Each structure stands twice: as structure tokens, then as C-alpha cells.
Description:
It is a single chain. The chain has 57 residues and is mostly beta strands. It has one domain. The chain contains no helices and five strands. The strands form two sheets. The protein has a three-stranded antiparallel β-sheet, with no helix packed on it. A two-stranded antiparallel sheet has the order 1-2. The protein is globular, with a radius of gyration of 11 Å. Bound molecules: zinc ion. Residues 8, 10-11, 13, 31, 33-34, 36 line the site of zinc ion.
Amino acid sequence: MDTVSVTCPYCFERTDLVVDPDTEGSYVEDCEVCCRPWQITVVRAGGELEVVVDRAQ
Ligand SMILES: [Zn+2]
């Protein structure tokens, strides 16, 4: 499991997001703090993990 530190785009709380090793692409998950939906985008390039958190539409 990879753990990435992310900042909620709504409440700006910093939390650790656990990313499954098989996960790639976009999915929606609720913020643990304010329960509003995150649009999470996971990109894996050359062994590097990049996670972008946006407000879900
Ligand atoms: Zn939040």
C-alpha cells in the first residue's frame, strides 16, 4: 500500500490517503473530515506515484 499525504480541496485538512498498489486512474472518495466528495486521480509513471485531489463535479 502506498500512503500519500493529501489536502482536502474543501476543508483544507491534511490527511493520509492509502492507495492500493493496483489503483490507477480516477475514482471518487469522500473526505474523512468533511465527507464531501473528492475526485482522486492516480497516475503511475516510471515507478513514481502521483495523486491529484480535486472537487468532484
Ligand atoms: Zn474535507
